Amino acid sequence: MNIHEYQAKRLLHSYGAPVAPGVAVYSVEQAEEWARKLPGPLYVVKSQIHAGGRGKGKFKELGDDAKGGVRLAHSVEEVVDNAREMLGNTLETKQTGPAGKQVNRLYIEDGADIDRELYLSILIDRATGRPAFVVSTEGGMDIEAVAEETPDKITTLPIDPVKGMTEADAKKLNRALKLTKQAAKDGLDLFPTLYKAFTEKDMSLLEVNPLIVMKDGRLRVLDAKVSFDGNALFRHPDIVELRDISEEDEKEIEASKHDLAYVALDGNIGCMVNGAGLAMATMDIIKLYGAEPANFLDVGGGASKEKVTAAFKIITADRNVKGILVNIFGGIMRCDVIAEGVVAAVKEVGLKVPLVVRLEGTNVDQGKAILNDSGLDIIAADDLDDAAKKIVAAVSEGKE
């Protein structure tokens, strides 16, 4: 689960991390009211959407000459002008894709005198199975280019989860970021603070970009991006309250209600599969034959008829879907249950696109019989390769 920058900063501040005074606003009037309460004379007006690259983004309604989604303002009047341009308009960044996201709230923050911009994140290092800090002296909007062109400027420091964050670890980070004097003292406090927040709140990502050294030598969290492990949210009702469903895909919201693992993608072939590994293989083979998957959807190992029906409805609700591939290997999951769910869903919502079904495993003969006896226009497949070829061909024929 993702949260907004202002929520992330509020959370980190509660742990003791240094952040600038700021407030979230939802209207131009609020922007003016709260800007007058900030110290000034420099302000930062930040679009609040669940996507990175806001500073280099553009508002679709304002044309190519429009400024990005993060702007400096040197007066309250400039704050108001920026808020009027940004609120209600659609910000397109590298992470939103062409559709962009509507800006419904802004974060008005007091400005800072920046001396250096650094990069810091904490995530789970799959290679070591440990939380790890990833830091660089080259912070700011072009960190992706740093990772690609000069990876030697990025340092990764795994943390022993048994020992936790030690002073020796913090000193290593100070050296990697070339922090001295007051900034180094701040680092010895800040790094353990961020690690504590990461572990206690079951975060999957904590990114501070940039972490700045101000001209007075102090460290400050200038931007913050936080994601949480969805499997651990039951332990954190306070975090669940921060969820902004307006920033999420409607189909993903619906899938979460039925405990389905669903992620919307940009392709046109809907997929219903049991098991994450098989789902990834199914998407790969669709791409191999020249098409693109419209989603990742794992119905799990013990799905009921009702759960399968819900999954099918979610797929067909996507207007981009021009064909559907159901690929089930029945172990715990029974093929007859899948077949019953597919038939029930098709009868309820209709079938306007080609549907290819591949079943294998437990009760496969019963499952195939249910599909064959349904009277529905379902294309049977013998194996995954056959299924992928058939759905890609059927969707291609539909374009002609």
UniProtKB/TrEMBL annotation:
UniProt: Mg(2+) binding residues: N209, D223
Which GO molecular function terms does the record list? Answer: ATP binding; magnesium ion binding; malate-CoA ligase activity; succinate-CoA ligase (ADP-forming) activity; succinate-CoA ligase (GDP-forming) activity
* UniProt-listed Enzyme Commission number(s): 6.2.1.5
Keywords carried by this UniProt record: ATP-binding, Ligase, Magnesium, Metal-binding, Nucleotide-binding, Tricarboxylic acid cycle
Question: Would I find RNA-binding among this entry's keywords?
Answer: no
Catalysed reaction(s) here are:
succinate + ATP + CoA = succinyl-CoA + ADP + phosphate; (S)-malate + ATP + CoA = (S)-malyl-CoA + ADP + phosphate; GTP + succinate + CoA = succinyl-CoA + GDP + phosphate
Q: Per its UniProt entry, what is the enzyme's top EC class, as one word? A: ligase
Q: Which residues bind substrate?
A: N274, G331, I332, M333
Instruction: Give any Gene Ontology cellular component.
Output: cytosol
Cite the SUPFAM superfamilies for this sequence.
Glutathione synthetase ATP-binding domain-like, Succinyl-CoA synthetase domains
The GO biological-process annotations, alphabetized, read as: succinyl-CoA metabolic process; tricarboxylic acid cycle
- Name its pathway: One-carbon metabolism; formaldehyde assimilation via serine pathway; Carbohydrate metabolism; tricarboxylic acid cycle; succinate from succinyl-CoA (ligase route): step 1/1
Q: Do you know which Gene3D superfamilies this protein is assigned to?
A: ATP-grasp fold, A domain (3.30.1490.20), ATP-grasp fold, B domain (3.30.470.20), Succinyl-CoA synthetase domains (3.40.50.261)
Known HAMAP family for this protein? Succ_CoA_beta
| Role description | Succinyl-CoA synthetase functions in the citric acid cycle (TCA), coupling the hydrolysis of succinyl-CoA to the synthesis of either ATP or GTP and thus represents the only step of substrate-level phosphorylation in the TCA. The beta subunit provides nucleotide specificity of the enzyme and binds the substrate succinate, while the binding sites for coenzyme A and phosphate are found in the alpha subunit.
Its subunit composition reads: Heterotetramer of two alpha and two beta subunits.
Q: Which family does it belong to?
A: Belongs to the succinate/malate CoA ligase beta subunit family.
Q: Which NCBIfam families match?
A: PRK00696.1, sucCoAbeta
- What name appears for this protein in its UniProt entry? Succinate--CoA ligase [ADP-forming] subunit beta
What organism is listed for this UniProt entry? Roseitalea porphyridii
